[in-house]
Amino acid sequence: MKSGSSSLKIKKHLLPLSLSETEEKIISLVARSARELNLPVFLVGGHVRDKILQRPSKDIDFVVVGSGVELAESVAAHFHPAASLAVYKNFGTALVKHEDFEVEFVGARKESYRGDSRKPIVEDGTLEDDLSRRDFTINALAVSLNDDDYGMLYDAFDGLKDIEKKIIRTPLNPDITFSDDPLRMMRAIRFASQLSFRIEPETWQSLVRNRERISIISAERITEEMNKIILSPKPSVGFDLLFKSGLLKIFFPEFEKLFGVEHVEGKGHKDNFYHTLQVLDNLSEKSDDLWLRWAAILHDIAKPDTKRFEKGRGWTFHGHEVVGARKVERIFRKLHLPLNEKMKFVQKMVMLHLRPIVLSKEEVTDSAIRRLLFDAGDDIDSLMMLCESDITSKNEKKVKRYLENFQLVRTKLKEVEASDRLRNWQPPISGELIMKTFGKPPGKEIGIIKDAIREAILEGVISNTFDDAYNFMLAKAKELGWECVNKY
Ligand code: CTP
């Protein structure tokens, strides 16, 4: 079978791709099915890019000169047992799942777009039509799976050279590529951050020029790209580009507001935008947890709201952790991030982010350590990681001192945890037992006794044991003039 593209001016290279066993199996099945149906087929897009870059990839895209759905149906049936198949008639695409791979089939198309929508008007096209309507040259590479030139790389836009030179560039005039689909502006920045590539100047200028078009893209899709930036090895690369392009101000103005330094009486505060990016990069070296990285982004989000210049003291941001924790939900809602326990975790981290720092500056008392463990619970290690990342001072002596104090806090945390077991603390005396012991109905007074027991444990007056707590309860009740009616 002919590739169907021999008349096109397409450069060819032999491609030495190294494929896993499963990838080999999928690709040879696709080639076999295409041969049977006499349909020219090409491996295309991100999978080709990632294979050349030797990055892992679980999505494989195929472009078919003809019906992508017909080929997908045949491929799904060739698996034993048959693979699951989903057909998206409106888009002319189909998805086959095999093991942990998602294999997508699309017919080669010629697309044109209306100004107010991402929805393309789609017509059948040639391979070159299809490649030219893709986002970047590095994603517009196709590998033939056809008998006459099996394994050849179709590289119409010098994508291979751009991969070598680490460049993000659009195949066509960037104004057309970005206007066709403004999400590509986010993708350009995401690839730059993920792959440590640089955006070619003409593409960048067009991105800046077209930035307002991002408003036709849904919050979910923008956030999906932003999360990929956050998960990239050095997320500050992506956020700096989002900031400089003006995109950040459009979809996440709360973050952009952290930028800038104000001076009063010759005193300036630090730039909280670049400080936050430094914290995010520091943290990203230690953790790839998306939500902890979100906590780094949001830890100082309320600094602009709480900023004051106090004579004699300089700049203060009192209560920014409390106001910040309150802002988290609004931001999550707007960005279509999940409003579940992930959000609660971020709120908790923002709320507590000053606690270990304050502790490390002061004398580290056992009761302060107990309170920190009590409030942070199982998230104490994440909190400590965030706080250590928050040290961005350029003064080496200061950094050394903070880090040493943090080490002391960590050691104390271990000691207190071993003796008091306060992580995810459960009261040793229940409300029911208090009611039963003194023959009292539920009410405010029961809560008073419970709080007093908790405070006594946290302050180290009594140990975190049933016996100590029980005796303490009896003494406290006596002070209140209660009579014990049921001894334990
Ligand atoms: N594509 C495009 N414009 C978009 C999205 C995708 O031109 N807005 C094309 C690109 O050729 C891309 C291919 O469709 O390579 C597959 O898209 P997708 O799976 O979303 O992205 P990948 O490039 O594979 O990257 P990743 O898997 O990292 O998202």
Features:
52% helix, binds cytidine-5'-triphosphate, 8-stranded mixed sheet, 4 domains, Beta Polymerase, domain 2, 488 residues, alpha+beta, two-stranded antiparallel ribbon
Characterization of this structure:
The protein is α+β, with helices and mostly antiparallel strands. The chain has four domains: 11-165, Beta Polymerase, domain 2; 174-251, Hydrophobic Seed Protein; 287-420, no CATH class; 431-479, no CATH class. The chain has helices at 21-37, 46-52, 68-78, 127-132, 159-165, 174-180, 183-195, 201-209, 219-230, 235-245, 247-251, 253-256, 272-286, 290-298, 303-306, 320-334, 341-352, 355-361, 366-376, 380-389, 396-420, 431-438, 444-459, 466-479, and strands spanning 12-14, 41-44, 59-64, 84-88, 93-98, 101-107, 109-113, 120-124, 142-144, 152-154, 167-168, 198-199, 263-264, 267-268, 308-310, 314-316. Strand 7 (109-113) and strand 8 form a beta hairpin. The longest helix is centred in the last third of the chain and has 25 residues, at 396-420. Bound molecules: cytidine-5'-triphosphate. Cytidine-5'-triphosphate binds at residues 45-46, 59, 61, 134-135, 139, 181, 183-184, 187.
Q: How much of the polypeptide forms β-strand, as a percent range?
A: 5-15%
Bound molecules: cytidine-5'-triphosphate
The percent range for helix content is 40-55%
E-strand count? 16
**CATH topology descriptor of the largest domain:** Beta Polymerase, domain 2
Biggest sheet record: 8 strands, mixed
